[in-house]
Amino acid sequence: MNATPKRDSVYDEYFAAQRDDEFSMIDLGPGALTHAHLVEQVFLVPTDYIRRLGTNSTMTWEMMMAAAWEALTPMARHGVGPALGAQTLAALGGNPQRAAANPRRHVRLILTALDGFRGRNLPRHEGRGYVELGRALVGFRRIPDAMTAYQRGRALLEDVGDDHGLRAAHARLAALMSRLGLYEQALLHAEAGQRVGERLTSEPGGQLPVGHAHFTEFLHDQRVRALTRIGFVDEAEAALGAWRREGGHLGNSFDLLAATAELRIRQERITEGLDAYMRAIDARFAHLDTVTLPGRTHYLENSVTLFGRAVGSALHIGRPDLAVGVLAAMATRRPVRPDDAPPPVAADALRNIDAQVSELARRATGAAVARDHAKLFDHNDRARALLETRDTLLHETGRSERPGRTTVEELAFTIPRAVGPGELALAYGRDDLGKVIVFAVHDGTVRHLPLDLSADEAAELTALAHDECVRRTGTDSVHRLGEAVLEPVADLLETASRVYVTAHGVLEDFPFHAAPFRGRPLVVSAEVRALPSLAPLGSNGGRRGPLAGGSSKAVVAAVRQPRYELLPELPALRAEAAAVRAAFPHTTGLYDDQATAGATLGALGTADVLHIAGHAAFEPAQPNMARILLADRPLFAFEIACAPRAPRLVNLSGCRTGAERRSLGGEGEGLAAAFLAAGTETVVAPLWPVRDDAALAFNEALYGELAAPGVGLAQATRRAQLAVMADPRFAHPGLWGAFTVLGSL
């Protein structure tokens, strides 16, 4: 690593104009040009990034790409040129999850890169830039423009003889044609890409070029799927055999198994197809909790069809238990265990990450107070990069050596047996026809029940019910939706004393505990727990004993009115603190000026219970910038997620502190999700803004129940909800129904 450009590199001109050590250079060697997203064997990272990591730190690929991304902004200050274009292709192509996070920005950056290449006799750079532009336009849903970009890139790369880039262009075109249902054209491009691949020779020493195996696999996949969908099943079988022979050690890869499953279903060999689907899911998601959140989200979004077909196949052969196992496998992260301490070898690097988090918090505070949403968006992206780097450091240094992920079949076996007597687990989702379905797990069995409700209708009613609760204008939508989702399982609810509810893609924001059952809210007859997925039932990793009031340490952080925001004063916070102290005598109070961000972060390392009372803010577009408004500055979600320890119970008594942006597998981003990521077992938080007097009534009731010996949190929450509901002042579900429990069991 150095700041000396390679000879004949587009970085020569850039470095000639710069006389400082702002950037260091990563040299990947000549083989790097086999990566379709790289146009130079080098790229730049901020020198300060290297210094902050420390001399003994190892840079993984993910960390290098995060650093390459971080270099874009300072490089852009020196103007648009080929060096910035090369850096952009490296940063975007090397981390497709970040590129896909904001399609509009992705398109803008690639157009900037192309501006830096045009008119400079750089046809290979320009051709690869057009291929990347096509990928950006696909994410932006500009399909005709994407096709034009791909074809333009293909022509340039063909003229210049760049076979690595040309094969990538054919692969992208094949994928686009398949997405459009043009399977014959997809087949033509897949076979053209394979012919280009045959021209490529091995590197000296018999090593295949970097990236060769990936495109070989991808083109085989496109060819087999195209033949399957056209209906040429014999040819598809032969292509599958060729793929296996050429793939060698890749024989159990996700793509091969997924393509095999699709072909077996087309051949009406449903049991074999389902087996291949389950093995494909296990292959892809075996170690997914060691991947960063953008990576997990990317894999899930590209596997929705796979999950849907696996669920459909399981139902076709009468195995709803396997369907539940598939749904539970969508959960992308296991609960954090109490013994998951950071490995000592990562301590220095993690301290450097902590310093960067503190600096970002300072800058984000200025942007939040100034309401500069553009800067907040940039800071949200930087926070994600820091969280990626931190996760990578933890996983690369030992956490990934934990026992492997539970398989689909194991989840199908354990989940029905984890639901005990008097318990009922309900998992809501949608089928291939767009209808809402529910899986009911009860007494060791799984039932699959269709609902007379489309997913679109459910989404509309959920939005209307949410609006009714926020505005407290009525309960018509709450009742209509509640009856629609609970009536099909009414016979099971009659005998249930505890109900676990999870929803995939629909009904996520619906307060099931407030839904009517037999004319009364469901919480009247049963304890209702909302879970992000059914996976915790299968792992049972989060179950621990109740909090002991006599020995548990509690901290209250309460700010009535932050000085840097014009917000109404919250006068009831001292009364909330008194309720906490009554349940937990060992309570430390941080009030107003004492409730600083530093003091609250410090409490995460010592408290068993943390009660935060005050104002909060959440914007769905910047979930890592969700913040608690404390005395000196906001405390941001990304800071909380980086904490090395967190209390067992966190009660966020602030407006919308329960709001989060959730991925397909149930993992969220926001304040509650940040505490869970740091190791908190359970978070109590409102789903929408509530009145101050309602919050006080709920918390007094909650801590009054927790003060009783042996009362668990779920039982205490239910009793508190019932107590508030019984008060005529708070009878509307928008008041008592806002409070929900998130996290482990």
TrEMBL record:
Pfam hit, one: CHAT
Domain CHAT: 477-744
Highest rank taxon of the organism: Bacteria
Bilayer-crossing regions: none
InterPro entries (alphabetical): CHAT_dom, TPR-like_helical_dom_sf
Signal peptide as annotated in the record: none
Protein name (Swiss-Prot/TrEMBL): CHAT domain-containing protein
Organism annotation: Streptomyces montanus
Taxonomic lineage from the root: Bacteria, Bacillati, Actinomycetota, Actinomycetes, Kitasatosporales
